[in-house]
Amino acid sequence: MKISGLSQACENNKGPILAELTQIFAQTQRVLEIGSGTGQHALHFAAHLPHLLWQTSDLAYNHALIKQVIGTAEGDNILPPLALDLGQSWPLAQVDGIFTANTLHIVSEELVRAFFHGVKQHLSQGGNLCIYGPFNYNGAYTSDSNARFDTSLRQRDPLSGLRDQQWVVDLAEAAGLELAADIAMPANNRLLHFIRR
Ligand SMILES: C[S@@+](CC[C@H](N)C(=O)[O-])C[C@H]1O[C@@H](n2cnc3c(N)ncnc32)[C@H](O)[C@@H]1O
Predict the structure, then answer these.
(1) pLDDT digit string, tens, across residues 124-142
(2) What is the CATH class of 8-196?
(3) Ligand 1 neighbour 146 (Cβ under 6 A)
(4) Of 38, 34, 37, 68, which is closest to residue 54 (Cα–Cα)?
(5) Is the CB of 6 under 6 A from ligand 1?
(6) What is the phi/psi pair of residue 146, to 5°?
(7) Domain spans of the chain, in order of start
C-alpha cells in the first residue's frame, strides 16, 4: 500500500545522515527523536542501527502517519510516538541519545530554549545530541536557497526562521553540552553533534 504524505527531502537526506549517526550512535542504546514528522528517518535509522532502540515523538497530529510508516519496519527497535510538545514537560525518563531534524527553524525561539531545557533534563551524562538542518553563520545565510527558504518560513509563521549556529551552540553550552562536531551535509545543511558533559 502506498503511504501518502511522505517527504522527498527525507528520502534524499537519510543516507548522508545515517553515515554520520553510525559513528556517533555506535555505543548509544536509546535514542529519542524529537519531531519525527513522517517517521521516515526513524524507519531508516532504526533498521541500520539495530543495536539501539529508537523512540519516536511528535505533536499528536503527526502520530497516525508516523505509526503507519514505522508499522512497515522489519525490526522491533522502533517505539510508537510519544506525544512530546516542546512547550511542555517531556513524557519519558533519561536517554543516552537525542536526534532532531529540521525542527529548530520551525518552532519559535522560545521553544528552541525549551528544547535545550529538555535536553539538559533528559540526556544522560556522556550522551549524544544530533541536530540536523540549515543554520546561519555569523548572522549570514550560507546559500541563496537557504535565504529563500528562510523568507518562506517567516511568511508562513513569523516565529519560524533559520537559527544562527552560534546562538544554538551557546544555548547548548548553557545546558551542559559541548560541541563535538559541526558537519557539512548536502544541500547546505549541517549536522551539529553535542556531547553532554
Ligand atoms: C519540518 S518538520 C520536520 C520533520 C522531520 N524531522 C523531517 O526532518 O522531515 C518539523 C517537525 O516539528 C514538529 N513540531 C512542531 N512544533 C513542535 C513542538 N512544539 N513540539 C514538538 N515538535 C514540534 C512538527 O510536528 C514536525 O514534525
Answers:
(1) 999 999 999 999 999 999 9
(2) alpha beta
(3) no
(4) 34
(5) no
(6) -65, -35
(7) 8-196
